[in-house]
Design a protein that fits this description.
Blueprint (H helix, E strand, L loop, with lengths): L3 E9 L3 H9 L1 H7 L3 E6 L12 E6 L2 E12 L3 E8 L3 E13 L2 E12 L7 H22 L5
Antiparallel strand pairs: 1-7, 2-3, 3-4, 4-5, 5-6, 6-7
Length: 148
């Protein structure tokens, strides 16, 4: 199975700074996607979730794995790679944030290759990763919808 690509676009009726801070804070992001995420290494930059920070993700039945932030531009961009463990390889996540008329636009992409033994499961892995993230971001977006 070849390289897998996930792209999720979501709008939020909230300032970009608010959504950026929620989704790039490791523990806060874990709450959004209902997964245990713990920061295990703080960034040496101003923001403890910035470049060089490492988060451990524990999501049964997948063994815990770690991701390291490689790009962090406040209110604009965060990129990370899997740096330890995981049933996938060459994994890179990218969250791009922009603001349009007071609303936040998020483009979240994930690219990965299944490990050799899981190549036949690539078509299973992709939706298993994408669906809960997509649903969680939609749920977060609903929190910021104006009251009717």
């Amino acid at each position: 199975m070849s390289r897998q690509h996930i792209e999720i676009r979501q709008s939020f009726n909230a300032p970009v700074e608010t959504i950026f801070n929620i989704l790039t804070d490791h523990e806060s992001f874990g709450k959004v996607i209902a997964t245990k995420i713990q920061r295990v290494v703080d960034s040496q930059e101003e923001n403890k979730n910035g470049v060089g920070s490492v988060r451990r993700i524990s999501s049964f039945p997948v063994p815990a794995f770690e991701e390291t932030v490689i790009t962090f531009e406040p209110n604009q961009l965060m990129e990370y790679v899997v740096s330890k463990g995981s049933p996938i390889k060459n994994h890179k996540g990218r969250m791009e944030f922009s603001e349009e008329e007071g609303k936040t636009k998020l483009c979240y992409s994930i690219d990965f290759d299944p490990k050799l033994l899981l190549t036949l499961l690539g078509s299973v892995l992709k939706p298993a990763i994408e669906k809960p993230i997509r649903q969680s971001l939609e749920k977060l977006s609903r929190r910021y919808e104006p009251s009717q």
